Amino acid sequence: MATLSTGETYAERFWGRMKREPLIPAGASAAFRVFGGVVYHARKGNQRQLQLWMRARVIAQGLTVVAIVWGFYRLQQDSVKYNEKIAQEVARVDEEKARERAAFEERLREAEVTYEAEARAAKSWFGSKGGDAATPTESSGKRWYQYLGWSHSSSKSDSDKKA
């Protein structure tokens, strides 16, 4: 059996559509019935019945117009509901972004406080050795091994040169 890309068969789609839009099959069957009555009585030459069937055709056309107006009204109501749903989704996403932004700012404040505490600790540690205290992110030109009194060069240290 042939299936659509949605995974349903043509018959399932047809009957599903008929359940969602009940005026479509009712209007179509009424139109075919009226058309059949007009053709039948016109061929037979029965003018009285032909007039009745022509009036039925006008009534069926009026009901078609009513069904179209009702369909547009329903479509508009669905559109309003859809727009409300989209607005709620946008509000939810904006609220989630605001929560994430607030959480990020809180983490940033905590990181700044921690950085300041580490900078003070580094300043007090480096300051106790008598040199210019440099924070971990400030560049003083020294390397880590120079703080321990080691020299990078393989030549004699400054104290050996003085002697």
TrEMBL record:
Coiled coil stretches, renumbered: 83-121
Localization of this protein: Mitochondrion membrane
Residues passing through the membrane, by range: 23-42, 54-73
UniProt keyword Transport present: no
Primary location class: mitochondrion
Domain HIG1: 1-86
InterPro entries: Hypoxia_induced_domain, RCF1
Sorted UniProt keywords: Coiled coil, Membrane, Mitochondrion, Transmembrane, Transmembrane helix
GO CC, one annotated term: mitochondrial membrane
UniProt xrefs under Gene3D superfamilies: 6.10.140.1320
PROSITE patterns membership: HIG1
One GO-annotated biological process of the protein: mitochondrial respirasome assembly
Protein name, as recorded: HIG1 domain-containing protein
Organism of provenance: Armillaria gallica
